[in-house]
């Protein structure tokens, strides 16, 4: 069904564009993933662009919902929501750049907060600002990437005349021509016989912009198989590349092992210093945002140092640390190894940055669950794909996530991945399961062993009550310290350390060999030493290990095996 065209760029056009862009990226996601060879051949550019656009579209929908029957949001409201949604939901290098492109457009389109719409002139200015701001956000811009495609789109728009539809079409055609030229600008693309994956995604987004203003989807670029590129008059659903033909493509030699992404609340001056520090730590540095909120993306060998740099600059959160699989790193010896799946991987949902680092070091692919913001099933499915394994052991580490994790597992199974869901209800149970994980065992045996270890681990947490509530231990008031054992409130007190000691004594009264303590950022500095001393004095032959969990919601997690 043809899209009803929008004459001007107003709030409704923003909403329509976001929806069409999300559809276009959804159709092209697997194709874009398949041609992703730069800056890291990790096969997730299409997925990252889709998830970023999804966050932008959701933010715009929320603005429209807020107005309900009381009118329509202004253009400024809509584009600011679009840019903010993309910023907080940006994934990977490509998604972060897309977020900055949308932010650049918003800076122009929201300049007059009272304006209901803009025309072709405003759209031309917005596309120019988008391209320029994206280039400024990248520490070391490289030609033959999405930056080149964005610049070409802006150049073509500036040379056009007419309404928004004419400007959008000119930008699209300029971007399409630039995309076809990317292999001649970047050697890794030429060797692979593909166009730039991020640029391909931007062409899809601009195609959606054309459809928004004209009601017709433009003809799309098709990438050729290895060795050449071409433009065909085919629809946007056409295959971009034969995946198998990219299997042994040379890529850039050497490269960091971790991708680190986080949102950061910080002042401009602190971000300038952060850019300098992160640039010295790794590569693929992109810092986007402004007005106190930034999205930071970098590839490094020392993920902890990248996070620490963010802590020094301001308040980092929504931290994601991804360990590139051996077949996804920039490569060894200048040759990209075959894109063969590993046999088995562990995917775990973890509640804090510290635990994310711990799980990652142990070889797991992690999904960070922010306090009050549990991951959606799509995020877990994305992590399963990122693990790039034939068999996956999934650790939800939260009783409330069992249905979400089950839905993710079912989706992954439809994609040919064998998934076993171990119903871990706490991150400490996940630690116990991961400790006995042996990839060399038969899958069923490994799953049984990990399930047994998790089931043999009692778990508890110390938290602060947010409101008055009835519990199994009585009525608690807001501000009370709660000790929960196996999910139920067992202790209500006023002192964190005392409540934790009471909980630990109750857990160890039934026996145990190992106590695991995971400290949240707000836990008292002395609590670990106090509890370790308590275990040494009162429980012979029981060992204690302590981890820093970061912003994990609970003040303290306790596990007893």
What is the secondary structure topology, with strand pairs?
Blueprint: E1 9-10, H1 11-34, H2 45-67, H3 75-89, H4 92-109, E2 117-118, H5 120-137, H6 146-158, H7 164-185, H8 187-192, H9 197-214, E3 258-265, H10 268-281, E4 282-290, E5 293-300, H11 303-313, E6 315-323, E7 342-350, H12 353-361, E8 365-368, H13 377-387, E9 389-395, H14 402-414, E10 418-421, H15 427-435, H16 443-455, E11 458-464, E12 469-471, E13 474-476, E14 481-485, E15 488-493, H17 496-508, E16 514-520, H18 527-538, E17 543-550, E18 556-560
Short précis:
With 561 residues, this protein is of the alpha+beta class. Helix content is 47%, strand content 19%. The protein has helices at residues 11-34, 45-67, 75-89, 92-109, 120-137, 146-158, 164-185, 187-192, 197-214, 268-281, 303-313, 353-361, 377-387, 402-414, 427-435, 443-455, 496-508, 527-538; strands at residues 9-10, 117-118, 258-265, 282-290, 293-300, 315-323, 342-350, 365-368, 389-395, 418-421, 458-464, 469-471, 474-476, 481-485, 488-493, 514-520, 543-550, 556-560.
